[in-house]
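FORM 7B: Structural annotation worksheet

SECTION A. Query
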Amino acid sequence: MILRSLLIISLVIFPFFASAHNLVIDNRLPAVGVDEKGELNYVNDEFSYSRWNSAKLPGKVRVVQHMAGRSSAKELNAPLVDAIRAANLPHDRYQTTTIVNTDDAIIGTGMFVRKSIEGGKKEFRGHR
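SECTION B. Predicted structure
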């Protein structure tokens, strides 16, 4: 009985000793990157991919969204996107970056997901 009580107490207390993050106030967040098919580029009416790293994003306040390549994920994030658009934030000081995991798309829909991303890139290419 005592052993069981000690186990329960330790399981309840243990999470308080675990650090959920290593963020430091007034410091940059750790850089994240995507090496394979990272950034979608649209230059001279052609699409290409290059490596992407958040360290290349200085000078603006940013929201980086990472989502699955599914319409359900897009629907879940729609309220955030709508709120950001409604805020009418200045493009010279704010930018949203979206990372879409096309490997997480439903089998057979990856091509449609990529076409949707390309359409979004064309629509927002002037907002850097």
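SECTION C. Observations
The first helix runs from residue 2 to 13. The longest strand covers residues 33-43.

SECTION D. Sign-off
Analyst initials: ____
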